[in-house]
Structures are given as C-alpha cells and as structure tokens.
Amino acid sequence: MSISVFGKYPGYRPRRLRQSPAMRRLVRETQLDAGKLVLPLFARSGQKLRQPISSMPGVFQMSPDEIVREAQQAYEAGVPAVLLFGIPDQKDEKASGAYAWNGIVQQTVRLLKKELPDLLVITDVCLCEYMSHGHCGIVHRGTEGRPIPARVLNDPSLRLLADSALSHAEAGADIVAPSDMMDGRVSAIRQILDQNDFGDVPILSYAAKFASAFYGPFREAAESAPQFGDRRSYQMDAANAEEALREVALDIEEGADMVMVKPALAYLDILYRVKSQFGYPTAAYAVSGEYSMVKAAAERGWVDERAVVMESILAMRRAGADIIITYAATDVARWLK
Ligand SMILES: [Zn+2]
After folding, report:
1. For residue 37, what are the β-bridge partners?
2. Domain limits of the chain?
C-alpha cells in the first residue's frame, strides 16, 4: 500500500481511469464561458474611423459608429460587456475631456446604449488619457528655485475623477472602473454616484494595478505615455503581494463592488489571493503586452494562438477570476462556440 504525503487526501493514489471526452468534461474543475469576458475598446472622434494600433494586431482606435459595429460583433459572439477608453481630440492640464458632457466616452456610451441596450458598458475612469502630461492626476511641477520634483497631487485629482465617473453614469454606463490608483477615489466616486441617484451603478476598481512593462503597447493605443517621470508613485511594485491585498481591502472598504488585478498572467498568485481572501467578484485584465506577445509569436508560427490564448484564460479562471478583460474576447467567444 502506498502512503500519501498529502495529509488532506489520505489514501490518494494517482489513477488512470477510463478516458473519453465526456469523462474529461465530467471531472473538469474549471469551465470557460463567454459570459465572463469583457472586450476593451478605444474610442476617438470621427466617422467610419478604424485606425490600427501597430503593436496590437486586430485592435483599433475607432469612431463611435465603428465601436458600435465592433461591440455588436462581440455581443453576437457571446461577449456581454465592453470596457471603453477614450482618446480625446484635445488634452490639457485639467483633463477637461474626461468629464465633458459631450466627451468622447460619454458620446460613445450614449450611442452604445441606444443601439445595443443589453450590452453592458463599463467605462475606464482615469485622467491620464486627457492630461497633456499623461499622468493620472493633477501635476504639481515643483517650485522654481527649489529642487522639488514634479509630482501628482492626490486630493485635487479626486474631484475630477468623481466628476468623470458621474458623467459616465449620466451617459448610461452600467459599471464605472477607476484605474488611476489615487488614494480615496473609490469613496469619492461612490459618494458622488449615490448623491446623484446612481446608487445602483457598481464600481469595478483597478484595486491591484502593478507598475508593469506589459503595458507598453497600450500606451500607443491610448496615447497616454507620460511626458515626464513615470507612474511608479501610484502604481504598485511588482514585488509586493501583501501590499496588493491591502490595496484591495482599502478599495472594498471604500465601496468597490468588484475588484481587478492587472496585469493577469504574471500576477495569478495575486488573483488567487484576492479571490480567496475577499471573495468579491474579481476581474483579471490581460493587458496589451500579454496580447501582443502571443500575436507576435503566432505570426511567426512559434505558438498556436488559439491554444495559448485559451490556456491563458483557463489559468486566470482557475486562479479565481470571475471576469476576464481581454483584447481577444471576441475570438475567445467564437472559439468557445
Ligand atoms: Zn491613468
């Protein structure tokens, strides 16, 4: 008789049972379901505009009418939700486009909700795409003659973030997703939504957002590369897992309804711990770099794109992700059919 080293499973022996596709399905622990997918989309003004993002084959900056077409294809394939980013025509140091009534995201949300009322529209709430300097908040450039480096001001930025979230909700957004990592932004957004009768609009917070090299292609997609400095003062060090759990706890305390871990594949341990510890609906964001690496290798015939993407998504689900945000959402939904 073999003795198991696993106290939890006394008497366990690896077994080779009769195998068949039905048998494998019967005992499979993790299911893939298109209903868990979210497709990120980049909106910019114009008509019939589809501007390819060279570092992300198959991903485009699109005008609102094209966004509707793209979203409809995703929805028909089984993807229930999109995540909208906006690229404004003009940027300034107050991020005016982020909370303008007729900003690019607000326009696009209205059009999407009109044309595809059952599609869930999630909006990214941040200031960096709308700031001329590309940071996620108001920047203090330092005082002349005194060697104080430019820095992002937390508290004054909160008001602008809250106004942005409110304008998205007013346009019809189903979920708002603050991505900036400023301290206190979830409660600021919760408060302004509640005060304006949007108590039923959930907040999906980018709770554990790491300063990551995997964001490279996104900077081209959203035209949001910082003009100076970097975002390390408000994004997390890749080395820190406990800090990520504290950030998630803080966002939940402030009123987040769902929490996100970003990036996904290199942070599955974080995803697992966040889901195990808090049990909240947890999203994994498979970021631009994750997408582009697979595309690049697949173009050279070095990996099987479909197999690699499906395995990655399965791993995110296995680690605990309820929601998977991926540029491959429409493909995945079709492959699942
Ligand atoms: Zn940002």
Report:
1. 324
2. 31-336
Taking residue 279's Cβ as centre, other Cβ atoms within 10 Å add up to 9
In the chain, the amino acid numbered 62 is M
Residue with tokens 């003795």: 3
What separation in Å is there between the alpha carbon of 136 and the centre of ligand 1?
A: 4
User: CA 244 → CA 8, 135, 250, 316, distances in Å?
Assistant: 29, 21, 10, 17
140-151 pLDDT, tens digit each = 876 666 656 677
Give me the active site residues, please. 209, 262
Rounded Cα distance between 219 and 292, Å, is 13
CA-closest candidate to residue 289, choices 262, 249, 252, 261: 262
Beta pairing, strands 204-209 & 175-178: unpaired
Say whether 11 sits in a helix, a strand or coil: coil
- Ligand 1 centre distance from Cα of residue 139 (Å): 13
Dihedral in degrees, nearest 10, Cα atoms 97, 102, 106, 108: -110
CA angle 52, 56, 61 (to 5 degrees): 35
CATH superfamily of 31-336: Aldolase class I (3.20.20.70)
- Alpha-carbon gap, residue 204 to 282, rounded angstroms: 9
Amino acid at site 163 = D
Residue 133: name the closest of 220, 236, 234, 229 by CA.
Answer: 229
- Counting beta carbons within 10 angstroms of the beta carbon of residue 240, is it exposed (0 to 12), middle (13 to 18) or buried (19 or more)? middle
User: Ligand 1 center to residue 30 CA distance, Å?
Assistant: 33
- Contacts of residue 327, defined as CB under 8 A and 6 or more positions apart, other chains included, come to 39, 40, 56, 58, 59, 286, 288, 291
Q: Which helix (H) or strand (E) holds 39?
A: strand 37-44
Ligand 1 (ion): residues with CB under 5 Å are 126, 128, 136, 180
Give residue-wise pLDDT tens across range 282-318: 999 999 999 999 999 999 999 999 999 999 999 999 9
Structure tokens at 1: 């008789």
